[in-house]
Amino acid sequence: MEQELNDFEGFGFSKNILKGVIEAGFKVPSPIQEKAIPVILQGRDVIAQAQTGTGKTAAFGLPAMQMARFTGEVEILVIIPTRELASQVSDELYRLGRYASIQTVAVYGGQSISRQVDLINNRGAQVVTATPGRLLDHLRAGRLKGFNPWIVILDEADEMLDMGFIEDIGSIFEFLPKVRQTLLFSATVPPAIAKLARTILQNPVTIDVTPKTLATPEDIEQRYYVIEEREREEALVRLIDTEAPPKALIFCRTKRETDILSTTMISRGYSAKALHGDMEQFQRNVTMDSFKRGRIDMLIATDVAARGLDITDVSHVFNYHIPFDPESYVHRIGRTGRAGKKGIAITLVTPLEFKELNRIMEFSGAPIVYEEVPTITQARRRHQNLLIGKLTREHINEEAVEIIQRLSEDVDCTQIACKAVSMLLDKQSVAGPNRIGLSSREVERIMHKTARQKSVKRMPTRRKRF
Ligand code: AMP
């Protein structure tokens, strides 16, 4: 099988770290990963402002694990506010680092002390992810042997401040090696966190991926559809069939995805082309020109390739995959609704991508409205209406008259018409199960559940998060 290109290769990770990344399905680094990974690999201290859901665990975890020296001691310590987050982050790091022989242990209150001590002291774990209270308890009691973390990460620092852990953090650092690399991740940096940063970080690099100003144009109608991962392609086809966009821009996350999707769309009878950064400039110009002139109805592009695109009459923007950051979302949808025209922006999301969707809504204040994916019956009806409209308007070609005259000697005219329409229908067939995607009730249930879990694990909290 062809080896798929992966943008994480550029960081210079070992083969085994990359294997974890590929297995996790990461293809393109998120903005925080792009900015933080090279700086961390250089050994610098970092203060990074990034929200949950931005991929920050991998942003600090991958370079930290890449740098592990396998001394037989604990080398990487992640301090994190809640036990749920501790086990979540520990699992994510294990998932990413296991091929590089990384062992992880989560340490939090409410768990057997002797078992935790045994795991840390005798199992050779390189990474410990701990809540402040229990960690300080172990450190004060002198229970930990071989605990020499030289990379220390403070995750969700502002949350720890909210929860009253700031003094414990100060005390924990008194037990930690003086020569170390320290990384502080926080969604916001209130004065108390800035003060803490000054005492525990040395000459840190500041990284901020929090979007500043965002506003989505009013002329764009924004909708989202909730689907399962496997339904992505089918949902797109149905939406295209029902919307019948005269000029659509479809955004994918990777170059490979644009290639695969354009091949699929073409084979299903649509007029589409891919546009990505790996194409020769000449080829890109030809593709953009065909789209501009309406020779193709849809352009399937990556964010980077679409950057220089100047087309005023895009009727629809489809986010085949939701973008990582709100800024990209605003950029993408801003391709439609231009020059006083109305535009439609459609985003496909799976329940796992609610976090990203919520972040976009929170930062852009965008009224993105939920809608159900059209059923096959609805898509067919719409498809028929379009065809009827087209047939009514179509001018009659002289050669067609000649063919019908010859045919009608043997075959009935209604039969000929039915056959001709069948041929047209076959070109663009709507298929699959009648109903796909999640209903509004299912979506509500998932959102409710997530919000409930969140309120349990994140009390007290100041920010509205998903
Ligand atoms: P985090 O902000 O670390 O909680 O990550 C949020 C989610 O994004 C997790 O489920 C990660 O597995 C996933 N994720 C992180 N980085 C990437 C990436 N580069 N590509 C795709 N998914 C990612």
Which keywords apply here?
466 residues; Rossmann fold; seven-stranded parallel β-sheet; binds adenosine monophosphate
Structure report:
By secondary structure, this protein is of the alpha/beta class. Among the domains are: 2-208, Rossmann fold (3-Layer(aba) Sandwich), CATH 3.40.50.300; 220-247 and 311-375 and 433-454, P-loop containing nucleotide triphosphate hydrolases (Rossmann fold, 3-Layer(aba) Sandwich). The protein contains 19 helices and 14 strands. The chain has helices at 15-23, 31-41, 56-67, 83-97, 113-122, 132-140, 157-162, 166-175, 191-200, 232-243, 255-267, 281-292, 303-306, 326-333, 354-364, 376-393, 398-407, 413-427, 440-457; strands at 46-49, 74-79, 104-107, 127-130, 147-154, 181-186, 205-208, 220-226, 248-251, 272-275, 298-301, 316-319, 343-349, 369-370. The strands form 2 sheets. It has a 7-stranded parallel β-sheet with strand order 3-4-2-5-6-1-7, sandwiched between helices. It has a 7-stranded parallel β-sheet with strand order 10-11-9-12-13-8-14, with helices on both faces. Helix 2 (31-41) runs parallel beside helix 3, helix 3 (56-67) packs across helix 4 (83-97) and helix 10 (232-243) packs parallel to helix 16 (376-393). The longest helix has 18 residues, at 376-393. It starts with 14 loop residues before the first helix and ends in a 9-residue tail after the last helix. The structure holds adenosine monophosphate. Adenosine monophosphate (AMP) binds next to helix 3.
